Amino acid sequence: MKHKSQKLLEQTLSRRFIFLSLLKGVVIGSISWRLFDLQMIENQKYEKLSDDNQFNYHIIPPERGRILDRQMRLLAGNMDGFSLVLIWNKEQDVDQIIRRISNVIKINKRDIKNFYVQLKNKRNNFPQEILITKNLSQKDVSKLAVRNIEFPEIRFSMSKKRVYPQGIIAGHITGYTGAFSKLDKIHGETATFSGINIGKRGLEKFFDTQLRGKFGRKRNEVTSRGHIVDSQVYEDTKPGKDIQTSLDMRLQAFALERLEKGNYDLISVQNYKIKEQLKNKHDLTLANDKYVYIDKNRKVVYPQTGSIIVMDIENGEILCCVSSPGFNPNIFSNDLDLDQWTKIKNNSKAPLLNRSMSGVYPPGSTIKMAVALAGLESGIIDYKTKFFCEGFKEFGTSNFHCWAKNGHGNLNLMQAIEQSCDVYFYEMGTKIGIDRIALMMKKLGLGEIYDIEIDDSSKGVVPNIEWKLKRDGINWTLGETLNASIGQGYILTTPLQLVTMTSRIANGKYSISPTLIKTHSNKSFKNLNINQEHLKFVRRSMEEVIVGEKGTAKNYKIGTKNIEMAGKTGTVQVVRISELEREKGLIKNEDRPWKKRDHALFVGYAPVSKPKYAISVVVEHGGSGSTVAAPIARDIFKNLFRL
Question: What is the dihedral of CA 461, 465, 467, 472, to 10 degrees?
Fold first, then answer.
């Protein structure tokens, strides 16, 4: 019989053995299950972490900032777009897939061509995504989505497409975006990534970095065979900043329509005589689908070309900046094809040219205020100085003519500005000298590139003795001073410079500079440093141009009790009139070929009692500044002041 203590020991050992056996079984079972789990169940999860796998990073473009007018109307924004992508692998019959897709939706030939270029340039034979088109409509997506079983190798993606609701009205100012190319300068760290759109012209280009925002990054984990096994956003995007311009789209739209109309009339395209004329004008840009312009002979004509700018003389804000003809920037958002681009580029009217900023023109009589101020500031003339005009000034063997064939008689300075007497300014110019005239022109903003938010402005030309010697290696002549005194000869200005000159005269105190951006704080400008009494005299002279009995724009008063404009007309000869033509009698401007007609100009400000806005109007080959440009300016001011 066993001892009691021995029995207790055996029982304890037996329980421990059972416990250890169970523990061993649990451990072995757990290890076995974990091995099974790793090998069979979580095989795919750990496959992607193998040494042959890699991380691919993709740029995620942010939503581009908007461009707005001063009333927060949209000039440039974004709308949803859809792209079609082929998930390619080397076993596919790509041609057959494209044919099947084309039987369901219409794909642009250019997109198909680009697709095959991408296919040809792929780096390896791993499965990858290749863009077919980014111009899918919602209708196209629906057609393919309901037949998704037939197309397992395609997928859709959503993107943002740049849109310009104002179209041609603000095209030159907004500019447009496009894919980065080797011709583009690099602005910002992400500009060189393929498929990224950047600003190409206008505000889109100038503010590209701010509008573009901060790019995000997506991380794809792919196997050595190219299969994507995981995808996640690695860094979030940050939308671009909005840009609020100083433009007023209501005024902008009216100004464009008024400039194109000029002194023409509108007539319906349904008129049978008009239909016949339109057959021979395939490149005619219509005002709209229902009307065309006709001249006084009832001939269908092209819309007038030129520029209108309206500027606030207190802070330099540009409320209106129109250039005609224009272009619709939306065509660049739709992948402009070669035929469209060639048509625009070869258009003789140069619709891509921003005439307001880059167009250069002889200013004609619109700069006579600058010449007058140069004379007054130098003390060479005073308000009472008189010269006699008999219709021309003899100089050497040549005659320099006044626009008034029979002359103006004896005039003082105010009368000379009111009636725009050329002979008076010939006489004054020879006494002042070109260097003093040039200095005053530059003080008033001519011959200057402003710090404005657009990159296609021109400097123009303000000539002087040194400029001529440096450019041509010969001395300046007195005959060239005569031409410069009436805004002809070498001198060239932009409409932007003319409206800036007028703003400085109207403001009187500061060297106002233009801006396209709505200012939310008071800007500081340099002092103009021109005698205030001289400026007041010149402004009174500009008033006489409109309200004076012999003013060159007396027929185009605003005519209200509290608001009137002041200004200066200008008519610029494009082709010099010969002595023989003068003897035979001058040919009417409208009877000449379009390119040989005079340019019509007007600069002015309003209201006269308390100047607030300045304007410059240039109508290319429009004729007389007093009969074509002045009424346009009057109508713009009436619209601006809601008269």
Answer: 110
* DSSP letter (8 states) at residue 361: B
CA distance 637 to 606: 7
CATH of domain 56-88+97-244: 3.90.1310.10
pTM over 0.90? The answer is no
DSSP string over 290-335: SEEEE-TT--EEPPP-EEEEEEETTT-BEEEEEEES---THHHHT-
CATH superfamily of the domain spanning 310-640: DD-peptidase/beta-lactamase superfamily (3.40.710.10)
Residues 181-198 have pLDDT tens digits of: 666 655 444 444 545 678
- Which of 105-109, 364-368, 431-435 bottoms out in mean pLDDT, i.e. has the lowest? 105-109
Instruction: Please tell me whether residue 503 adopts helix, strand or coil conformation.
Output: helix
> Domain residues of the chain, as ranges?
56-88+97-244, 249-306, 310-640
Q: What is the pLDDT of residues 515-574, one digit of tens each?
A: 999 987 677 899 999 999 999 999 999 999 999 999 999 999 998 888 999 999 999 988
CA dihedral 525, 528, 532, 538 (to 10 degrees): -110
**Contact between 616 and 498 (Cβ < 8 Å):** yes
